[in-house]
Structures are given as structure tokens and as C-alpha cells.
Amino acid sequence: MDDPLRLENQVCFALVTAARNIVSIYRPVLEPLGLTHPQYLVMLALWEHAPRSLGGLAAELAMEPATLSPLVKRLEAQGRVQRTRRADDERVLDIDLTAEGRALRERALEVPAQIMARVGVDETALVALRDGLAPFAGGFDPAE
């Protein structure tokens, strides 16, 4: 590294730029499914485990519940999820997949391959990238 303060040498700049670009890479792949990138992330989490509480879903997605709530409402309006209050604790809002939401998973199975083709990388490269980002992806105290 010739100059540690050079913009192109900053991991933060590379990550911010990549994060911005990834949404534009996913957009045309997700549009036929009627999903935005954040909605796709919600669906991925629900396809792994549903129902789950809004708070639990927000924690897994590293989002604030207040940010996640409008996404879930839009998915509910599309008929893909349903929100219900727990009978034993009405403060808890559970999010579950509808039949349409479960069926959408089959169509979404093609998304990873389409993304790899658009970016020009294979699964091994994507796994290495994901694993390399792990130290930046959470599990730290920003106050430290």
C-alpha cells in the first residue's frame, strides 16, 4: 500500500461502492419476481425459518424493526407474507409465509446463478468473498 490514506486503498470505500453496486446488479434479476433487494433478503430469511417474530427477523437481517416493518407490510400487500399478533403476547408480531410466498421460493432458486453469471464469478469465488467479509459483517461493538 503506497499511501494508507489514498481513497482507493480504503476497505470502507470498496465496501460502500460494492454495496451500492450489488443492488443494481440484483435489480433486474429480482424485478420479474416482484421483489426489491431488501424484500428479497426478508424472503430469504423467512424461507429458512417461518414464522418468526418481527424483532427476531430484524435482528437476523441487522435492521431496526421500524425499518423492517414497512417492507413486511408491502410483502403482505403482495400476498407473500402475513402478520399476526401472538395470542399469548400481543406485543409480538409474527411474520409467516403465505402459500404464494412459499411458492415464490421455487422461482427464486435461479437468482444466485443469474447473479454469478452477471458478475462473471463462480460459486467458489462468491463463497470466498462472503467468508472474507465475515470480520466486517457484525459481531463487534461499534463503541470499541
Helices and strands in order:
Layout lengths: L10 H20 L6 H12 L3 E2 H7 L4 H13 L3 E5 L7 E5 L1 H10 L2 H9 L3 H11 L11
Antiparallel strand pairs: 1-3, 2-3
Helix pairs in contact: 1-6, 3-4
Descriptive report:
- It contains seven helices and three strands.
- The protein has 144 residues and is mostly helical.
- It has a domain of 96 residues: Orthogonal Bundle (Arc Repressor Mutant, subunit A).
- A hairpin with a 7-residue loop joins strand 2 and strand 3.
What does the average pLDDT come to? 92
Q: Which oligomeric state applies?
A: single chain
Beta-strand content estimate: 5-15%
CATH architecture of the domain at 38-133: Orthogonal Bundle
How large is the count of helical segments? 7
Instruction: Kindly provide the name of the CATH class of the domain at 38-133.
Output: Mainly Alpha
Main sheet attributes: strand count, strand direction, barrel closure? 3 strands, antiparallel
CATH topology value of the domain at 38-133? Arc Repressor Mutant, subunit A
- Basic shape: globular
**What name goes with the CATH superfamily of the domain at 38-133?**
Winged helix-like DNA-binding domain superfamily/Winged helix DNA-binding domain
Helix content: 55-70%
Low-confidence stretches: none
Strand order of the largest sheet: 1-3-2
